[in-house]
From TrEMBL:
Belongs to the glycosyltransferase 2 family. GtrB subfamily. This is Dolichol-phosphate mannosyltransferase. One of its GO terms (molecular function) is glycosyltransferase activity. The chain crosses the membrane at residues 232-253, 265-290. Residues 8-168 form the Glycosyltransferase 2-like domain. It is a multi-pass membrane protein. It is found in: Cell membrane. Keywords: Cell membrane, Glycosyltransferase, Membrane, Transferase, Transmembrane, Transmembrane helix. InterPro entries: Glyco_trans_2-like, Glycosyltransferase_2, Nucleotide-diphossugar_trans.
Length: 317
């Protein structure tokens, strides 16, 4: 019976007790309009509020809903990956529960998929309810990422997208643990397009991507798709060495001509501070890559599932 499912909607959850009922309602209204069989796959990423309990109530009510419960919080990208691994539809949609990405756009994505596109991502043309700083940093980051990698990573795009099951299978074959799913979807290729939409303010609750998690996601994106930061370190080091050599020669000649002390303490301290800063920046960049190698070498699973709740055996709506 599962093979008859056309669409799987993957919804990662982390402390979404205030929005989960409304999110389910909106998603169900939209998916019912397709007239085809579908499933909704909730992935509870170790929530510590009432999210799990409310998701279980939905499962009891609707046999077209699955609930994956993690053993603890493994992160948004792990939750997306788990949902795609469990999904059985011909097309898989990933959407957050906060309703910032409007579920109604899924119907436009489905139309593109039926036209032959294998990846349809949502492109934000406007972001409501977000600070200027967040909008600016997000816009800047996407463009920096695009310039750093040979992969055509679309700008102003999050994880909200539809992918064909063959794309899902290709993603499942990739072994890396520190995943940047939206970048990997671009990397695997296939026929891709987009639909534009306005990103709304959260329906309720607080963002699950504070500054720390945003920085980690950004670093995962850059280090998983590009090694250019390491090349930049080499360039910076070479340039600083040349600048240091030339400035040292100039200062020595100046001090000889004007009969000043060749060694100027303040100059030495400032140069040392500058060089130490560059060294630590370089070590930090290399540390990001070494850390990723360390995580991959441990070969631990990306997530651990506590249980999966599904009542699909009785009926599928």
């Amino acid at each position: 019976m599962e093979n008859n499912i056309v669409y799987s909607v993957v919804v990662p959850l982390y402390n979404e007790e205030l929005v989960i009922f409304e999110s389910y309602k909106r998603l169900k209204e939209v998916m019912d309009k397709t007239g085809e069989k579908y499933e909704i796959v909730f992935v509870n990423d170790g929530s510590i509020d009432a999210t799990r309990k409310k998701a279980e109530l939905i499962c009891n009510k609707d046999r077209g809903v699955k609930l994956i419960n993690f053993s603890r919080n493994f992160g948004h990208q792990a939750a997306i990956t788990a949902g795609m691994d469990v999904a059985v539809g011909d097309a898989i949609v990933v959407i957050d529960a906060d309703l910032q990405d409007p579920p109604e756009v899924i119907l436009e994505m489905i139309e593109k998929w039926k036209q032959g596109y294998e990846v349809v991502y949502g492109k934000r043309i406007k972001r409501e309810g977000e600070s200027f700083l967040k909008k600016f940093t997000a816009k800047t980051y996407y463009r920096i990422l695009k310039s750093m990698t040979s992969v055509d990573v679309p700008v102003d795009v999050g994880d909200f997208r539809l992918i064909d099951k063959k794309v899902c299978a290709a993603l499942a074959s990739l072994p890396e643990k520190n995943r940047y799913v939206r970048g990997l979807v671009s990397w695997v290729g296939f026929k891709q397009t987009y639909v534009e939409f306005v990103r709304h303010e959260r329906f309720a609750g607080e963002t699950k991507y504070p500054l720390g998690k945003m920085i980690k996601l950004a670093m995962d994106g850059i280090t998983s798709l590009s090694h250019r930061p390491l090349i930049f370190v080499n360039y910076i080091g070479t340039a600083c060495s040349l600048i240091g050599l030339i400035s040292t020669i100039v200062i020595i000649m100046r001090n000889i001509i004007y009969q000043h002390n060749i060694l100027d303490l303040s100059l030495i301290l400032s140069l040392n501070t500058f060089m130490f800063g560059l060294v630590f920046i370089s070590l930090g960049i290399m540390g990001q890559y070494i850390g990723r190698i360390f995580d991959e070498a441990k070969d631990r699973p990306m997530y651990i599932i506590d249980n999966i709740i599904s009542y699909r055996d009785v009926d599928i709506k």
